[in-house]
Amino acid sequence: MPESNFIDHVRIYCRSGKGGRGSMHLHHAKYNYNGGPDGGNGGRGGHIILRGNRNLWTLLHLRYQKHIMAGNGGDGGPCRSSGKDGNDVFIEVPCGTVVYNAESGKYICDVTSHGQEVILLKGGRGGLGNFEFRTSTNQAPRYAQPGEPMQEMQVIMQLKLLADVGLVGFPNAGKSTLLSSVSAARPKIANYPFTTLEPSLGIVSYRNDKSFVMADIPGIIEGASEGRGIGLRFLSHIERNSLLLFMISCESDNIKEDYNILLNELIQYNPDLCKKSRILAITKCDMIDEELEHLLKEELPDDLPVIFISSVSGKGLQELKDTIWKSLNSNDNTFDSKGDDHIVHKDLNTHNINLDLLYFEDDEDINRAGTEQDTDIIYV
User: Fold this and answer.
1) Beta strands 165-169 and 211-216: pairing type?
2) Is 376 helix (H, G, I), strand (E, B) or coil?
3) How many CB atoms lie within 10 A of CB 353?
4) What CATH number is given for 165-337 in this structure?
5) Do 242 and 276 touch, CB atoms closer than 8 A?
6) Residue 345: what pLDDT?
7) Which of 32, 74, 247, 301 is least surrounded, with the fewest CB atoms within 10 Å of its CB?
8) Quick one: pLDDT at residue 32?
9) Comparing 91-95, 212-216, 239-243, 353-357, which segment has the lowest mean pLDDT?
10) Domain limits of the chain?
């Protein structure tokens, strides 16, 4: 089976550049043997900077990039010559990337918009030359500052897809079929559970050239919040969704009970998910008649909108779009998938991450102290 190109977790060793040394130099010229101090300042070490890129949708380009190191700052020279700054390294990441400390699991930063730049690791400041230490009582200082050391860290980058609507349901509930019916996305569709193994995004067209983004994730089973199935790995992709569309097949023995199971799994994973707007869609309704549909309405939950749809025949799809659009633009829907001020990022539980995807082997040839030979080299 070919390996998937969708990578939403990577682990990388990052190191910023160290600052250059300040110069301790006394000016000497013809007929001026006591010219005083003129040592220049050292250059700043290079930063490690994250930059959002809307043209990326996966972290595949970073999967085999285990070490990212910025350049060191140059040393100061005579005649108050400052050392050159180390070259910064820009890491292009898709919008919605969250960065955690790989050792502690602590949240570090988040990149949500195109062109947004976040300094992940700052380069060390350059040391001051002896020219900066001259005073009226010490006119020829014979000392200078060393540069600040670099910063290093192993980080885990986790991609959380940015979408307006997230599809939540058991395996084989018709989520991928709905996405392919209302958008141009073409996820894999088959009549067996766990056909969808990776998230898919689709842009749904609405009236008057309006649109919204819909995200399909693999099916959730009971116990997913404890690690059962593959839904736990992708539950993070619906944390940014403005609205959750629960999808349950009309073939279910108890629709209300299945809905409560799905809702409970989301609450167990992240209690904040219960604050989002919710809609319940009963799928595969082309297999039932109006009489049976009327009987099913009596058993449905009454705390959210319920719509009967069929992705094959198109039944209820326009009504579903109208309900979604109305909910997305209502005052009650206070969650904004593009905003980040009110999103509380939990620390990462590194035990739940697939270690096969994040396997990281320390290389003995990494020069952690930095040398003058690698001052102008960027390892990318």
Assistant:
1) parallel
2) coil
3) 18
4) 3.40.50.300
5) yes
6) 65
7) 32
8) 78
9) 353-357
10) 1-160+343-380, 165-337
